[in-house]
Amino acid sequence: MYSEKVMDHFSNPRNVGEIADANAIGEVGNPQCGDIMKIYMKINDETGVIEQVSFKTFGCGAAIATSSMATELVKGKTIEEALALTNKAVAEALDGLPPVKMHCSVLAEEAVRSAIADYYERRGEEVPQGLKCSGCCGSCSHGHEE
Amino acid sequence: MEKRIYVDHAATTKTAPEVLQAMLPYFETVYGNPSSIYQEGREAKKVIETAREEVAAAIGATVQEIFFTGSGSEADNWAIRSAVKAMRHKGNHIITTAVEHHAVLHTCQQLEKEGYEVTYLPVDEYGMVSPSAVQAAMRDTTTLVTVMLANNEIGTIMPVKEIAETVHKAGALFHTDAVQAIGMIPVNVKDLQVDMLSLTGHKFHGPKGSGALYVRQGLKLEPFITGGAQERGRRAGTENVPGIVGLGKAITLATANIPEKAAYLTALRDSYIKKILQTVPFARLNGHPEKRLPGNANISFSFIEGEGLLLFLDMKGISASSGSACTSGSLDPSHVLLAIGLKHEEAHGSLRVTFDVENTMEEVDYIVEAVRETVERLRNMSPLYEKYLKEQQGR
Predict the structure, then answer these.
(1) Distance from A128 to chain B by nearest Cα, in Å?
(2) Considering the entire predicted model, what is its pTM?
(3) Do B344 and A32 touch (CB under 8 A)?
(4) CB contact under 8 A, A59 and B311
(5) Pair B242, B280 in one domain
(6) For A13, nearest residue in chain B (alpha carbons)
(7) How far away is chain A from the Cα of B163, in angstroms, using its nearest Cα?
(8) Do residue B322 and residue B243 come from a single domain?
(9) Any signal peptide, and if so, which residues (chain A) (predicted)?
């Protein structure tokens, strides 16, 4: 049911772990839903570039694979570029996800946004509208592509 | 093909070679319609009745009490719907348990929409329902109680005989879903005092698509499919002759040596459980420690999700099952694990291993090591485990 790319990112996930001196940490999902994603970032304050990124995920194969792919897609990107990442782009980069697993890609997008929101908060800056999301589908107002 | 270790026998089993051999002539040579009067038909009719004798003998029933179906789910649907309809004059109350198979639960839920009242009895931490709880739930209007003989997920064996006695004293009918129990524990309908019992062949090395419903003599069984005289007018449709022959052969084989088989499977199961609990921290056994099916081990691992565990085990050549939401196709984990009191995250991290006689102690050791490695690997990725470790350090 999973593409080869999904299985690759699930069985050899990229960027697993914590970043000790992370300056942006986002966590979305909840154990009830069965998925929790936590993303760590080290963002360069001067350039706004995400220099390091890692994740820890509790969830199914697709949740782990989308976490891995999302961290790959935002690594070395600027905050603005990272915020442009959509769940659809994550799913497409994995050669697609089964329909019932599309929510995992949503969670990955939300985890990235949540980490960036945390970065703004830590700097005492206003968090742009719509960045904070629980990650549990249905509870949030902004749209995702299924 | 690489060597596979199949430990998902509660899902389905391989058709036994003897069973397959017994079935083949009824595809190739004796392909007549059992309703036809010429030789091919008569012969097909005869083997159906032989299979009926075999199924009846295996569970202590008479041939008039056995009706063939297409699956265990069909037998459950038929039994429940027929019983409540036949007893409608007495009332509209049904009692079942929170841990039944969906074939029973969803049928009861559907009947609720049709105006019936249903009590879903809670279970204890082992997934057991007590006869006294059934008694307490009985009403004057109770017409049917349906409680499974053994649970498909956690293997807990219910005190069905005691429950049946209670139910009969109150004048209601009793049905049991024995799909997981046949061939694993002795099942005798007269001893259990059940009015109806469901079974299916593919759980004990028979073919898929073969099932049977036992209905105690004297009980009126409503037709389930109309349109023909098959199964004494109760279930129309040309009989699945090869399937029925296979079911008869399989149940005879499966019930021939239960004590020996159970002893072997219990040894595998207990060794697996002991080794897992010894080598993997934060693991708990689900279901009753002793009153459980000999081949069933269901263990929850904290901080991880079951689908990932299954995928890694699959890569290591192991076929097992989980109660996680991701494997159920819904957002909720197993209703059985929630009913025994597990938290959602614990239920998501469960692994069901169900052994059969072809499994070996060497395989047990291989599985234990594979599970240990995989759980550790997934925990190293898990934010829940990280949180737990930090809390411990903070103390």
Answers:
(1) 26
(2) 0.93
(3) yes
(4) no
(5) no
(6) B381
(7) 34
(8) no
(9) none
Contact B311 A7 (CB under 8 A): yes
Owning domain of residue A105? 4-122
On whether residue A93 sits in a domain, the answer given is yes
Residues B353 and B223 occupy one common structural domain:
no
Partners of B383 on chain A (C-beta within 8 Å) are 27, 36-38, 56-58
- Answer whether B384 sits within 8 Å of A60, measured CB to CB: no
Looking at residue B351, which CATH number applies to its domain? 3.90.1150.10
Query: B389 Cβ partners below 8 Å, 6+ apart?
Result: none
Nearest to B384 among A13, A31, A101 (CB): A31
Instruction: Calculate helix-pair angle for B72-86, B102-113, nearest 10 degrees.
Output: 40
Weakly modelled stretches of chain B, pLDDT under 70: 1, 325-331
Strands B196-200 and B211-215 come out as: antiparallel
On whether the CB atoms of residues B375 and B282 are closer than 8 A, the answer is no
Residues 106-145 of A with CB under 8 A from B: none
Query: Which of A53, A47, A59, A95 minimizes the C-alpha distance to A75?
Result: A53
In this prediction the ipTM stands at: 0.89
The reply to whether A104 belongs to the active site is yes
Whether residues B181 and B330 share a domain: the answer is: no
Residues of B tagged active-site:
326
Q: Considering the domain boundaries, does residue B10 fall inside one? A: no
pLDDT at position A92 is 96
pLDDT over 70 at A141, yes or no: no
Residue B188 and residue B60 in contact, taking contact as beta carbons nearer than 8 Å: yes
Give CA–CA dist A93/A109, Å, rounded. Answer: 13
Sign of the torsion angle spanned by Cα atoms B156, B157, B162, B165:
positive
Query: What confidence category does residue A128 fall into, taking pLDDT thresholds of 50, 70 and 90?
Result: confident
To the question of whether residue B152 is assigned a binding role by annotation, the answer is yes
The confidence score (pLDDT) of residue A131 equals: 75
Q: Judge if B194 and B320 occupy the same domain.
A: no
Cβ-defined contact of B382 to A56 (cutoff 8 Å): yes
| Three-state SS letters, B78-94 | HHHHHHHHHCCCCCCEE
Regarding whether B272 and B163 lie in a shared domain, the answer is: no
Count of domains for chain B: 2
Which amino acid, residue B110?
Q
Kindly tell me if the per-residue pLDDT of A139 is higher than 50: no
Domain boundary among B220, B254, B288: B254
